[in-house]
């Protein structure tokens, strides 16, 4: 909205103010992102002790393919959290994307080139509705997106009468099952997605606006950020990326179910927070989030290989998450940093 | 029969009212002559093929003559929360239900409410999942030995030796526990069988595929998979790896059965048995309940066994029509989705319905309700599943469908 | 507690970040009045549709159904007031439930011990949460996610499939009625609300609102932020323990996943009660009423015969409308 008639002076002023705040923070964020990556590698290598087949390239491939859903979902979640919100409607919107893709498009529909974007558009509209409730009706994000999630699930249940039909679109199957240059397509896609997501969040003016809004809305307004538009944008992006994750899930398992998104809600939040973002907004990087998502997925594959009963495995999983959180505390880095100097 | 039931119900109501020290509104106990039977279909959750097929079958039967003039059916979906189903049952009892056909979310949490309903003359028919309250009727295949029979079939296919995965259902669920106990009882007899990974797949294709993929990362040399519902996802995970298929036992999805019969899949090493939970149980439960309500059958509350579907790879036969005819048991790929559960039909117990009924809840044109066979099969005791504080039979895990062929 | 006591006077101004309450009407909209009104309205609708709704039995049944969520939401309110999220709610309730089902203790004495056991479990988990959040400065949502996962695991180790029997005394007495009219579960919730009204006036209560509204300001005015936050998690945990007790009484059996459905509902109840999810504003009684409204809504939707596929649609819309409406009234009130 106000992005268009932005006057150059206010934008320049804004960039300046954004930059000074960022430069002080950059080192800490880089360190925590690196730490997540190191932890991932340590887990993968350590897994060799559990089973000799673990820690292999094949396991890395499995982790990357299974983790790609979570990365895409937590990109949107991360943007929403960056502005101090929370998106509980991700699972429902992912399911929406998957169901519409199988219902409207099907396996080899020649209309896929416009129908698939249309599916994402519908998802985006759901995100816009959430944002509208949050920005204009002043409903807390938690409630608005929770209610939206209940509403979308219920509409999907009614629309499909409980039985989702149709097959996965060829494009989605190619994305998840194809190979290119000897690498699985989803892995290549993941690399491209992470690059684009990083450019958007850390290198574009929009990303800087979002950081500013998350830190202090009023200050951002004074600095000339288009606050209303920038508060709506994350929810729309989040819904579109959730819809896209739905397409990916459909491509991966060749069909949609009404509960296909359910298991991703808490992991999407956990990935963002483990990656070093503040749940209160204004702090965190997408690369950290990617690390968090991959860390959680790695943990999942390793845990399932341990030959213990499920309850004990769950306890170990919780304990590792907790340890990771304690290791990744910013205070710890600061202390280490001061020792270094 | 109806009048006695109504009298009992009225008496119970009046007694209840007297106990509460308040007089019930007159309409609650009014005679039902000319009125329809008020039947509720209570689901815990919906959203997978199994649940909606089971519900659709009941809807289709209730719309088939003469039940279309006798029954007022209402569907209630209360979610995966036992408390919500308790609340739904309470509401149904209060609005004067004659019968409740239900998939219970918990074997024990609903007992108190069910008991109150029974005291007010409501008939409770549980399908597939069961409750331990003995005033309810349980119609279920749970006691028919899915776990042990499928496990033995897998052991036979592997000739008693090999690394296997167990793809289980929902953690902390008594049905999953019963199946797994049965299977492990068999596996324990064969020292050559090594369970290298055991994971929960939540009875869902997609989750099964992801969990199997994780397990394959650690154990690419797996030789067999014992799966509960969601088995088609296990096949997909194996195919994703690009390697060979292995012997696999699972439940009744159309995709799995077609794969079992597919020569290309067989060439890759797929063999196995399709067995497990049939959605047709709901229809059987509903028809039994209606026969009791209309006075055609006298039956005290008990546990009724639904026979275990059992289709080994060489018995898979594709149907050309919309029903199971001439011993066919799976539908072509373009007719139903791969997650469609084929055992929703039963030519003996449910001749009234076809796959359109299962998909849409619509009655078949020209069909009328046929009487059920007079005999029922009583289910064995399964402690904590269909009876409380009871003993399991000594031969709880006896094999009924297959015998050991391992030397 | 002593150093909080000496600073309570200083902390007071921080607790009231909005304009001071002058109007009685304003206080009504600010507190639980609105949600109470909504509840009465819904109940009237329910009673109109279902004449039996006013029976002593039906009221008690509804109360039994409400109590676990109400107590869980009460605990969640405390944490939310201190500007946190507590996901361990699901783990604590499941854990209490399986402990009560696996180790049933008969008789009133056994019930008392069981209750203390639940309080101890909740308090212990709360203490771990409080330590992680207040002293190690982890983010509450992340720390409690980890403790939730661990508690769920322990619950599954204790009981790997639903089963067991909660002692008959608990199952019968806690869901019964005193003198044939007063539901025990309702009394339990009322007792907690009563206790809260007392606690709220103590230095701790004042400090809680203060750190939720503006933590740096509260710290500057001498509130011991860490200790307040720690105590908040402990008390919240104990309330979840009580919720687990009431849930066990109602279902009379153990289920290692029993707490999971209450997780998101507890937040919905808190928000419906008008407590701000960004801390510092709201109250425990309002959340209890929020929980009661959510439970009642199921009944109303049932008796109005909404197609079962679409009940979620109505729940969602009611949730949004209620929150928008209460926000609107609050703003009108603030303008006065």
UniProtKB/TrEMBL annotation, chain A:
UniProt-listed InterPro entries: ABC_transp_permease
Subcellular location as annotated: Cell membrane
Organism domain of life: Bacteria
Keyword Cytoplasm: no
Transmembrane segments: 31-50, 62-82, 88-106, 113-136, 142-159, 180-200, 232-252, 264-280, 286-303
One GO term describing the cellular component: plasma membrane
Gene Ontology terms, MF aspect: transmembrane transporter activity
Presence of the UniProt keyword ATP-binding in the record: no
Broad class of where this protein is predominantly found: membrane
Membrane topology annotation: Multi-pass membrane protein
Keyword entries, A-Z: Cell inner membrane, Cell membrane, Membrane, Transmembrane, Transmembrane helix, Transport
Role noted for this protein: Part of the ABC transporter complex LsrABCD involved in autoinducer 2 (AI-2) import. Probably responsible for the translocation of the substrate across the membrane.
Subunit details: The complex is composed of two ATP-binding proteins (LsrA), two transmembrane proteins (LsrC and LsrD) and a solute-binding protein (LsrB).
Name the record gives this protein: Autoinducer 2 import system permease protein LsrD
Taxon lineage: Bacteria, Pseudomonadati, Pseudomonadota, Alphaproteobacteria, Hyphomicrobiales
From TrEMBL, chain B:
Periplasmic binding protein domain ranges (all copies): 39-296
Single GO cellular component term: cell envelope
SUPFAM superfamilies: Periplasmic binding protein-like I
Cellular compartment(s): Cell envelope
Signal peptide (residue range): 1-28
Cited InterPro entries: Peripla_BP_I, SBP_2_dom
A GO molecular-function descriptor: carbohydrate binding
Listed transmembrane segments: none
Main location: other
Protein's recorded name: Ribose transport system substrate-binding protein
Organism classification: Bacteria, Pseudomonadati, Pseudomonadota, Alphaproteobacteria, Hyphomicrobiales
Automatic annotation (TrEMBL), chain C:
Keyword Oxidoreductase: no
Record's keyword terms, sorted: Cell membrane, Membrane, Transmembrane, Transmembrane helix
GO terms for MF: transmembrane transporter activity
GO CC aspect terms: plasma membrane
Transmembrane spans: 25-48, 54-75, 87-105, 111-134, 141-159, 179-199, 230-247, 259-277, 308-329
Highest taxon of the lineage: Bacteria
Membrane-related topology note: Multi-pass membrane protein
Main location (coarse class): membrane
Compartment(s) where it occurs, according to its Swiss-Prot or TrEMBL record: Cell membrane
Record bears the keyword Cell membrane: yes
InterPro entries for this protein: ABC_transp_permease (IPR001851)
Protein name as it appears in the record: Ribose transport system permease protein
């Amino acid at each position: 909205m106000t992005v268009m008639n932005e006057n150059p002076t206010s934008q320049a002023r804004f960039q300046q103010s954004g930059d000074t705040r960022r430069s002080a923070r950059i080192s800490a964020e880089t360190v925590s992102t690196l730490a997540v990556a190191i932890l991932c590698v340590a887990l993968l290598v350590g897994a060799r002790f559990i089973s000799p087949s673990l820690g292999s390239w094949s396991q890395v491939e499995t982790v990357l393919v299974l983790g790609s859903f979570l990365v895409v979902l937590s990109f949107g979640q991360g943007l929403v959290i960056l502005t101090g919100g929370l998106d509980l409607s991700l699972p429902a919107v992912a399911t929406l994307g998957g169901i519409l893709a199988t219902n409207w498009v099907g396996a080899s529909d020649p209309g896929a080139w416009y129908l698939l974007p249309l599916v994402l558009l519908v998802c985006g509209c759901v995100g816009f509705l959430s944002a509208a409730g949050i920005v204009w009706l002043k409903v807390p994000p938690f409630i608005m997106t929770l209610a939206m999630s209940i509403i979308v699930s219920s509409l999907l249940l009614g629309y499909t009468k409980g039985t989702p039909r149709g097959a996965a679109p060829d494009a989605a199957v190619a994305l998840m099952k194809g190979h290119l240059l000897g690498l699985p397509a989803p892995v290549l896609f993941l690399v491209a997605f992470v690059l684009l997501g990083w450019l958007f969040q850390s290198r574009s003016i929009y990303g800087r606006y979002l950081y500013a809004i998350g830190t202090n809305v009023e200050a951002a307004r004074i600095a000339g950020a288009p606050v209303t538009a920038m508060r709506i944008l994350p929810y729309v992006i989040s819904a579109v990326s959730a819809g896209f994750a739905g397409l990916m899930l459909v491509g991966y398992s060749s069909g949609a179910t009404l509960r296909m998104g359910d298991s991703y809600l808490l992991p999407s939040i956990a990935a963002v927070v483990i990656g070093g973002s503040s749940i209160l907004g204004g702090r965190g990087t997408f690369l950290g989030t990617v690390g968090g998502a991959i860390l959680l997925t790695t943990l999942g594959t390793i845990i399932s290989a341990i030959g213990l009963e499920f309850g004990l495995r769950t306890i170990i999983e919780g304990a590792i998450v907790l340890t990771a959180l304690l290791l990744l505390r910013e205070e710890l880095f600061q202390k280490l940093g001061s020792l270094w100097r | 029969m109806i009048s006695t039931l109504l009298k009992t119900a009225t008496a119970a109501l009046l007694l209840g009212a007297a106990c509460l020290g308040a007089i019930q509104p007159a309409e609650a106990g009014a005679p039902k002559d000319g009125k329809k039977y008020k039947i509720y279909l209570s689901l815990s959750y919906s959203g997978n093929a199994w649940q909606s097929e089971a519900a659709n079958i009941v809807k289709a039967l209730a719309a088939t003559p003469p039940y279309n003039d006798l029954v007022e059916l209402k569907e209630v979906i209360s979610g995966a929360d036992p408390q919500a189903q308790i609340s739904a049952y309470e509401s149904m009892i209060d609005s004067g239900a004659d019968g409740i056909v239900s998939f219970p979310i918990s074997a024990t949490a609903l007992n108190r409410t069910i008991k109150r309903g029974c005291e007010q003359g409501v008939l409770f028919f549980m399908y597939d999942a069961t409750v331990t309250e003995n005033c309810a009727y349980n119609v279920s295949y749970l006691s028919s030995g899915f776990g042990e029979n499928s496990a033995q079939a897998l052991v036979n296919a592997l000739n008693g030796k090999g690394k296997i995965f167990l793809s289980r259902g929902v953690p902390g669920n008594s049905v999953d526990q019963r199946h797994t106990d049965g299977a492990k009882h068999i596996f324990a007899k064969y020292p050559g069988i090594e369970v290298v990974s055991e994971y929960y797949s939540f009875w869902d294709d997609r989750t099964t595929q992801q969990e199997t993929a994780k397990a394959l990362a650690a154990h690419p040399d797996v030789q067999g998979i014992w799966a509960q519902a969601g088995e088609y996802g296990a096949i997909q995970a194996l195919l994703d790896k690009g390697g060979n298929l292995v012997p696999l036992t699972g439940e009744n999805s159309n995709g799995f059965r077609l794969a079992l019969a597919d020569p290309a899949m067989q060439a890759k090493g797929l063999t196995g048995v399709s067995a497990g939970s049939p959605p047709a149980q709901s229809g059987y439960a509903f028809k039994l309940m209606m026969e009791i309500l209309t006075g055609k059958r006298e039956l005290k509350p008990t546990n009724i066994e639904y026979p275990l579907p059992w289709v080994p790879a060489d018995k898979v036969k594709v149907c050309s029509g919309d029903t199971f005819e001439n011993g066919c048991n799976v539908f072509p790929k373009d007719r139903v989705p791969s997650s469609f559960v084929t055992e929703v039909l039963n030519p003996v117990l449910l001749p009234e319905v076809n796959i359109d009924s299962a998909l849409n809840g619509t009655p078949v044109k020209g069909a009328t309700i046929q009487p059920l066979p007079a005999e029922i099969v009583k289910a064995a005791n399964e402690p904590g599943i269909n009876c409380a504080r009871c003993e399991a039979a000594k031969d709880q895990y006896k094999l009924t469908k297959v015998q050991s062929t391992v030397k | 507690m002593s150093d909080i006591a000496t600073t309570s006077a200083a902390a007071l101004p921080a607790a009231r970040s909005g304009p001071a309450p002058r109007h009685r009407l304003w206080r009504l909209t600010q507190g639980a009045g609105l949600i109470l009104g909504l509840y009465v309205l819904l109940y009237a609708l329910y009673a109109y549709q279902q004449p039996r709704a006013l029976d002593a039995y039906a009221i008690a049944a509804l109360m039994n159904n409400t109590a676990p969520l109400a107590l869980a939401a009460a605990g969640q309110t405390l944490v939310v007031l201190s500007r946190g999220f507590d996901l361990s709610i699901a783990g604590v309730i499941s854990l209490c439930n399986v402990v009560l089902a696996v180790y049933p203790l008969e008789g009133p004495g056994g019930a008392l011990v069981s209750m203390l056991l639940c309080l101890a479990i909740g308090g212990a988990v709360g203490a771990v949460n409080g330590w992680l959040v207040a002293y190690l400065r982890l983010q509450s949502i992340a720390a409690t996610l980890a403790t939730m996962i661990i508690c769920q695991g322990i619950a599954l180790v204790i009981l790997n499939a639903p089963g067991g029997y909660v002692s008959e005394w608990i199952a019968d007495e806690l869901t019964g009625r005193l003198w044939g009219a007063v539901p025990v579960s309702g009394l339990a919730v009322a007792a907690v609300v009563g206790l809260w009204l007392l606690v709220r006036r103590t230095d701790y209560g004042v400090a809680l609102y203060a750190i939720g509204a503006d933590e740096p300001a509260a710290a500057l005015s001498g509130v011991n932020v860490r200790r307040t936050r720690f105590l908040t998690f402990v008390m919240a945990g104990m309330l979840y323990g009580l919720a687990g007790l009431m849930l066990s009484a109602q279902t009379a059996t153990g289920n290692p996943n029993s707490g999971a459905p209450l997780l998101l509902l507890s937040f919905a109840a808190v928000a419906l009660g008008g407590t701000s999810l960004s801390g510092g504003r709201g109250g425990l009684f309002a959340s209890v009423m929020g929980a009661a409204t959510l439970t009642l809504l199921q009944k109303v939707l049932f008796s109005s015969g909404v197609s079962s596929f679409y009940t979620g649609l109505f729940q969602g819309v009611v949730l949004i409308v209620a929150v928008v409406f209460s926000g609107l009234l609050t703003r009108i009130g603030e303008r006065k």
